[in-house]
Design goal:
The protein is 45% helix and 13% strand. With 238 residues, it is an alpha/beta fold. It is globular. The two termini are 19 Å apart. 37% of the residues are buried.
């Protein structure tokens, strides 16, 4: 790892992964499902829905399916798992409302205050596979103080395609090393590093719920490893 103050002086843009890093997708879906359909195993439902995410994106990236927004991929996955959980009877309106739970994800407790601090010294943007409408609705509801919302939809490529990481630097007319990806996922950070971006790993041990803690041990290669976004703000002097 490098000196954090050196990074603070050289990095101009902090680009954030969103699902799991900034917002608690598992807990948010569990809470909403428990309210709407208390008979369903909400923990298993949330994890099954998320498990379909990567295979769905890979179908698009392999060209088996045309470019598709995450909202639409989420709906495809949802329609596929509803029968497994006794919810095949939901009509289109109910399915649409449930699918938009991804627009209503709650931030982790440290998120909003830390982003406000980080924004005093850096430009903050999203770099998410979520589509623009989803990310905008989420930010509006949760009070996420982004300076700019960037998405796979802008680049018509999903992470970890290099087009996404290099696209952030291009949008701001910066060198890749002047951009730092902040994420709770090592594969995402590895993709960013391969493109020359700086990287910060954020521990989110409860991303998949308290019953399924994540291994958040440090891995080599990242510039910073932080407990949460408040810790990142501390290290960067914000």
């Amino acid at each position: 790892m490098v000196d954090a103050q050196e990074l603070a002086g050289s990095v101009q843009v902090l680009a954030f992964d969103v699902f799991g890093t900034v917002v608690d997708w598992h807990g948010s879906i569990v809470r909403e499902l428990q309210a709407l359909h208390p008979q369903v195993d909400a923990d298993a439902f949330a994890r099954a829905w998320r498990a379909g995410y990567k295979p769905a994106m890979e179908r698009v990236m392999r060209g088996e399916q045309g470019w598709t927004r995450i909202d639409d991929l989420h709906r495809q996955i949802l329609d596929g798992i509803l029968p497994r959980f006794g919810l095949a009877h939901l009509d289109d309106g109910q399915r649409r409302h449930l699918n938009h739970v991804w627009h209503r994800l709650d931030p982790w407790p440290d998120t909003v205050a830390a982003l406000q601090r980080l924004r005093t010294r850096h430009t903050l943007c999203t770099l998410s596979n979520g589509n623009l409408g989803l990310l905008t609705a989420m930010a509006k509801r949760a009070g996420l103080p982004w300076d700019c919302i960037l998405s796979a939809e802008v680049f018509r490529a999903y992470k970890p395609d290099p087009v996404t990481y290099l696209g952030v630097a291009g949008v701001f007319d910066l060198q890749p090393a002047q951009v730092m990806l902040v994420a709770a996922h090592h594969d995402d950070l590895a993709g960013a590093r391969a493109c020359g971006l700086r990287t910060a790993y954020v521990e989110r041990p409860l991303e998949f719920g308290a019953a399924h803690p994540k291994d958040v041990s440090p891995q080599p290669g990242n510039d910073l490893h932080v407990r949460d976004l408040g810790h990142l703000a501390d290290l960067l002097g914000c």
